[in-house]
Amino acid sequence: MLNTVIFDMDGLLIDSEPLWKEAAQETFEIYKFKLSDAQYLTTTGLRTKEFVHTWFSYAKIDANLMDEAVDTILNKVSQKIAQKGKIMPGVPYIFEFFKNQGFKIGLASSSPMKLIEQVTEAIGIKQYIQQATSAENLLNGKPHPQVYINCALALNSLPTECIAFEDSFNGMIAALSARMTTVVVPEYAHYKQEKWAAANLKISSLLNFNKLHLDLLQQK
């Protein structure tokens, strides 16, 4: 019986993926590396340390500069979210929906806890979230399922009792690997890609999720 919902954050609840991309591209330019939009997309959903390590290795940038680059990206993202972060369509609706269904509500993100707190406060959902977990200090981040498993444990729920909402491929794999019922809300430009077929449900907006969807997921 599904009784818990766990949300990803970046790209799902706040339109921050373009801001992460801006911050990353601006930072990598400092090290004379131009990160393309297509390259960025392949590492969406990873923790910042893993993201930086991937592209530093690819571009053969001195690994001793990695921590500096991570800090620069995180600071830039925080500033950009404060300046122009926009809530995604359907966020107030989906939290009210699950609150009214009596679900426990959690959040599992690759972002640092400091950024999670900033975003949940800024978009007005902090009061709904009973537990939030970050992959920041875990041995493995998404697509490893640990951050989702930790959130379920914190909510005193079994992973099989949880619905996970994700917008990235790495996040979807993490939620599925945690044995959670998984709903994907892909970016419009990538909505028709076949890779989303692994999810239990694909929707174009949080606004589109309703009681019929929930009832169907309960039966799976």
Automatic annotation (TrEMBL):
The secretion signal range is none
Protein origin, superkingdom: Bacteria
NCBIfam families noted in UniProt: HAD-SF-IA-v3, PRK10826.1
Name of the molecule in the record: Hexitol phosphatase HxpB
Q: Which organism is it from?
A: Rhizosphaericola mali
